[in-house]
Structures
1.
Amino acid sequence: MSVQADILTAIKHYETIIIHRHLRPDPDAIGSQVGLAELLRKSFPEKTIYQVGGPVEGLDYLAEMQEIPTETYQGALVIVTDTANSPRISDSRYDQGDKLIKIDHHPNDEPYGDLVWVETKASSCSEMIADFWQMFPEELKMHEEAARLLYGGIVGDTGRFLYPATSAHTLEIAAKLLDFGFDAAKLNRQIDQISRKVALLSGYLFQNLEIDENGAARIILTSERMAEFGLKDSETAGIVSVPGVIEDVLAWAIFVQQPEGYYRVRLRSKGPVINELAKQHHGGGHPLASGANAKDLAEVEEIYDQIKRLCKEFE
Ligand code: AMP
């Protein structure tokens, strides 16, 4: 039996299903998590399905989370979507259920879970959930809200079908979801929208981005700078892809200082593989989109030097 069939068997077996995703959620985290929750609610109305993990940080146009007591985990099935490693799972009670399933599209560095379904070639975890529906169309009932969430996740992780992980299959699945009648133009606008404060930060970024002769770029956003713009870390999501529009830029890092003093590192690339570098600095992710942490400015320099080297060696 395939792992997907095993997952469906487990879903049918349990009365309570609790679905988690990663910390600092993005549209694919929420889209895959709540898209799956909505798909299962419609397909198995007799079951109780929860979506948990705390604040959705500006993504409330997609979905809100539920709060549940720890007792609810007793005898429940727990599914985690879009999360490569267990420390990144939002709500550490994920291991309190009876059975654990991992569904993800990041490199499988930590295969936590009793059942593990990982497709690193999938554009997004939302695409995998839509594939799951397509594998069992008799049993899984897609509908407008689930389709909207999954479409949102695909749009989010592919940068509106821009990044290389966008395949012919991604477009086929997106087309099938679009048939369910949600307002895709509105959703695209919501995903793309930035606040005026973030727009001003983009202006700062364009003016101050450091770019070397091989296309390695970086910007450091100190706590003082963030306070000047009146921004929180979670609001920097809107500027992460911004340096990529500059023709000279090949790979880049945005270093955002956290209230504790260390720097969250958001790494992106048009070619050089950056997730190995991310792993060396308490992070990870995809070959061209990763995250890491730098304890101080010395580690910030070290990471930028590594990006410079990767860009130099990239033909
Ligand atoms: P971000 O810059 O936070 O949007 O992250 C980009 C990608 O890197 C996402 O696929 C994340 O799942 C992954 N990522 C970010 N931070 C970490 C981390 N600390 N550990 C592992 N993966 C991460």
Note: The radius of gyration is 20 Å.
2.
Amino acid sequence: MSEKLSRLYEQCKKVSEKILEACEKDLFFRIISHLDADGIAAASITSSFLLKRKARFHLRIVQQLREENLREIKDSKDSVFIFTDLGSGQIGIIEKNLPPDSVIIIDHHPPEKETTIIQANPHLAGIDGATEISGSGVAYLIAKSIDESNMKYAPLAVVGALGDRQDKGEQHRLFGVNTEIVKDGINQGVLEETTGVRLFGRETRPIAMALEYTTDPFIPGLSGNHGACLKFLTEKVKIPLKDNGNWRTISDLTQEEKTKLVSELIQYMLGPAEMTPEEAQSIVGVIYILPKEEKQTPLRDAREYSALLNACGRMRKPGLGVAICLGDRSKALEEVESITSDYREKLAGYMGWLTKPGNVIQEEHLQYFHGGNLIDDRIIGTIASIAISSGIIPQDKPVFAFAESSDGMVKVSARATDYQVQQGIDLGSALRAAVKELSPEGTAGGHNIAAGAHIAAGTETKLLQLLNKIIEKQLSGKNGPNKGKH
Ligand code: C5P
Ligand code: C5P
Ligand code: ZN
């Protein structure tokens, strides 16, 4: 085992000892987690091992950790506060509001500052939390160190990592510490890894729908357009879409049919859709399967599972996502199906808005769009991710997306590409620095490649000016005369 990994295991062991000690004392746990797929998976893994220990706990899922969340709970006596998939970036407000020795942080965001609070965080072990392990991955390592039987939760950590887009290895494979988790899952017989067509809903959707629903990669002209997908499949690919009157899924296709589908898709992506060869190739890649889940349910394909959790969080039903992770099926699955479809409709509408001319504005070192009150502030981050990763907006500059928040503030979501990060861009530190200069009421944080903030309405232009300068500096620091000096 590498030295870094053993340092991370050491942290996890300390956290698990603290949790077990609190269980012994029958303390009450308050778990606070992030609302995306990774946060829901992390909270579920943590809840599962607490349930097994018959510990008493309460779970709260939030879009971001704010001081008011902490004020609400600060008077809960005899409590242990566990933050999952958030917390490291908000150490200041946690220390201000809660007794540090009753706090545990299980996170993968860059820590805001040094603290005496007990934390399991890959960054503290020299491991990159943006790409090598997710929040649910860290929660999984803790669960495993408490009891090896918790290795059955490995698939949830894979679902979380995929939700955070950590599948950046060759052919969209997870890498780093995530590889260890995948191995555990495979050894336990709860996970399989294969290579195939990365269309959404491989096991569950009629082929035209799988194509229509695919947004990673986003295929201009096909993604979100059912009619165009049907036409493409019948006129170009020419494979039967039905068998005995039933719609066929991708997993029903013969090898020959799959090959034909992939080759026509790649031709289309390189041709009329004007995508790059890498983007076109990305239609084939590594697929993670949960073999214990029923066939033809959205829980068999880990990417679809993660999209489903994400939809629950963003459509204000995070509890439903947790229920599914904890094993609730039948009714919960039916409900989630309708939520996922409402979510997709919303996404398609927003993408339509985004592609209208004039909505994305170019500055020297960044680009931005303002969704005002048209785009839900819980979904603005997803739109920014799809926009930049698909290339429907230029990929040469990071994107900053704004949306009005229900509390009168403005939500900011920032996304970069891997290449920009290699060039020196770090959106988490850029936003933190800009917001600090902008106003005391703002909050900001996140990874180099994906970050976010909450700012006072009306300060967007000023923020963009500050960011433009900071990003210029970040780029020159990496490539210019100061190279290697920081
Ligand atoms: O808070 P957390 O770390 O879980 O969230 C990371 C966010 O960043 C996710 O919403 C994920 O989709 C996004 N992300 C991204 N592109 C990357 C890495 C992460 O959009 N390359
Ligand atoms: O909300 P969004 O998906 O844009 O967030 C991107 C990343 O930035 C996530 O990892 C999120 O946890 C982080 N973030 C943060 N502080 C904020 C807003 C977002 O650390 N105020
Ligand atoms: Zn995360």
Note: The radius of gyration is 22 Å.
